[in-house]
Amino acid sequence: MIEFHTLDDALFNRALSLLDEEWLAHDAELGPVLPTVLARHVGQDWHKAGTFRHHLQGVARTLTLWEQPAPLRLLGLLHSVYGNAYVDLVKFDPASERARLREAVGEEVERLVHLFCTMPRTRFVQGVLQGALEADGSMVLDGKDGRQLLAADEVAAFIVLTMADTAEQWYSWQDDIFSRYPDHRSTLAGPVHWAASLWPGPMRPTARMVAQAATLGSALRHPALRGRLPMPPVFNQCRARLAPRDEATGVSLYWSVIQQDQPLVDADVAIAVLEQAVAHNPWVGEPQLVLAQLYLTVGEFERAEAAAAGGLQMLCAWGTAWDKRIGWDAWLAWGRILLQGATTRNWPARLDKLNNLALAPARPAS
Q1: pLDDT tens digits, 138-196
Q2: CA nearest 311: which of 352, 271, 278, 353?
Q3: 69 upstream amide cis, omega within 30 of 0
């Protein structure tokens, strides 16, 4: 019998506070900078699974859930505005507008934004994955402009940001066009691989990048990096690893249920398949939520409650959706519906009644 994560009330309440669409504007540290970002029309630019605005706000939301300090959260909101090796979205000209951004966010944050945008990021990720950190936590990067030394504080900040950045945007379409990143090949010819290039593809969750995020997170426990930043709550405070084969197996099992490749009359096979998906990769929430609904459907309320709580815990820990067919906020709302049905031992017996589901109104404080 698989075990599910327990739901941390403090983390859950932080997540709920970020469901308000205006949370960013009301944030004391990020809010004053938001108009500067929006004035550059970031809401009109395509970016992976949404717009550039969605991406920047999503990364900032994850860093806020992770209780990162203000400079790192500001870096998350601005992390690609000078463009970089992967994105041609230059919202501030690094040759002429650094002073303007410096005026908005301060010298240190602007320096970090510029450094993150201009350093060889692929080599940074490769170095972290290969354990190429010096004893003092620093890292030497060899780029086209020569050797570059990142201090330990910069290494820690860029690891946390890379984890949040990757989680927010990566799904199967990028698995295909950036196959085996960061050791991907850049010579794939579009006409030959046209099927992989069709955006947005089937919107299957990534089969590669959760395991990579776990390895990146484990680097934060390097003796010289530990304690420099709050530890992200994913992977048991970045203590756990995920084997690539387990990630690939887990997403394949999950997707086989989503695509209804299992028997469709009785739920027993689909439940067994999803239980194996969660066993292989317990670090994402959506398989646990789908499993919770199946438990509810067959009247296994205790298991449904455990699965719904575990799925919500993972959604709150990431602050972004793993299954990007729908947004994080919608998955969180659905997870709360599932948990409510499990705790009240009440779930529709008829399909049409699923359309009527709603959260019970909160009781006023006494």
Answers
A1: 999 987 777 899 999 999 999 999 999 999 999 999 999 888 888 876 667 778 888 88
A2: 278
A3: no
State how far the Cα of 313 lies from the Cα of 309, in Å rounded to an integer: 6
Query: What's the average model confidence in pLDDT over 216-235?
Result: 98
Residue 340 lies in a domain: yes
| Domain total in the chain | 1
Helices 152-169, 209-219: inter-axial angle, 10-degree rounding: 160
Task: Give domain status of residue 311, yes or no.
Answer: yes
Residues shown for the chain: 366
Q: How is 186-213 classified by DSSP, letter by letter?
A: S---TTTTHHHHSSSTT-PPPSSHHHHH
- Does the residue 186 lie in any domain? no
Does residue 17 lie within any of the structural domains?
Answer: no
Range of the structural domain that residue 258 is part of: 243-280+284-359
The strand pair at 139-143 and 146-150 is best described as antiparallel
Give the Cα separation of 208 and 316 in Å (integer): 21
Beta bridge partners of 82: 90
Token pair recorded at residue 304: 């449904």
DSSP 223: T
Query: What is the separation, in whole angstroms, between the first and last Cα of the chain?
Result: 40
Question: Looking at residue 205, what is its pLDDT?
Answer: 98
In the chain, which ranges are continuous DSSP H helix?
9-17, 23-26, 34-38, 52-65, 70-78, 98-105, 107-118, 121-129, 152-169, 172-177, 194-197, 209-219, 235-238, 244-258, 268-280, 286-297, 301-318, 328-344
**Interatomic CA distance for residues 43 and 37, integer angstroms:** 10
Phi and psi of 47, rounded to 5°? -155, 100
The torsion angle over the Cα atoms of residues 35, 169, 158 and 215, rounded to 10 degrees, is 160
* 263 burial via Cβ count (<10 Å: 0-12, 13-18, 19+): exposed
C-alpha distances in Å from residue 341, one per residue of 257, 299, 344, 345, 364: 22, 10, 5, 6, 21
